[in-house]
Automatic annotation (TrEMBL):
Main location: cytoplasm
One of the Pfam families matching this protein, by short name: tRNA_m1G_MT
Gene behind this protein: trmD
Entry EC no(s): 2.1.1.228
Domain tRNA methyltransferase TRMD/TRM10-type positions: 1-224
Name of this chain's protein: tRNA (guanine-N(1)-)-methyltransferase
One MF term in the entry's GO annotations: tRNA (guanine(37)-N1)-methyltransferase activity
Entry keyword set: Cytoplasm, Methyltransferase, S-adenosyl-L-methionine, Transferase, tRNA processing
Amino acid sequence: MKFQLLTIFPEFFESPLSTSILGRAQEKELVEYALVDIREFATDRHRKTDDLPYGGGAGMLMKPEPLVGALEYAREQDPGATRILMSPQGEPLTQALAQELADQPGGLILTCGRYEGVDERVREGWIDREISLGDYVLSGGEPGALVLLDAITRLIPGVLGNFDSIREESFSAPSLEYPQYTRPRDFRGREVPEILLSGDHAKIAQWRRDRALERTRKRRPDLLDPKA
């Protein structure tokens, strides 16, 4: 899958994209990352990407010319790509949405807004979907784009060595993940639950389901079907 990241701060992504799972995914040629500097498409000698909003108001808005120029360039590189704007007004990012995007045949163009947002005409004519990380505001779309990219990349077949680890994670099912333990068996008086040492896989699986449900009811009851 090809990811194109449209931003006025390409340096924001350089280290994360070469590190850990994201870096290994690229080394395996399972994904391709491309950074597109929106400033390169500015139409004035100062490479200006923002201007005052019509009608007044606080802050600045991203100008349409450089942003649309970058979007059109990215679409030329990957004609079937979905154009996404990271925005607090977008649909919330969920595990199901990450899986949907990971399964689609085309690439993704992740557009990082800045300032007080983007000219509405860009949304209307050059964006396919808007995605939000939650009900809060960041300094720009870069952190959100990186989170979205990470959530999708790890779902691409071959990126993670153990596929079962994806299926058992929180939010892959409508519940949180069960508690997990590793060595040592006793850490400062806190012992691993005896059932996990029993070797009885059926009982262990049932214990994990019960603990996952218990944890979800306590911490995230909104994830559960009220009729269950």
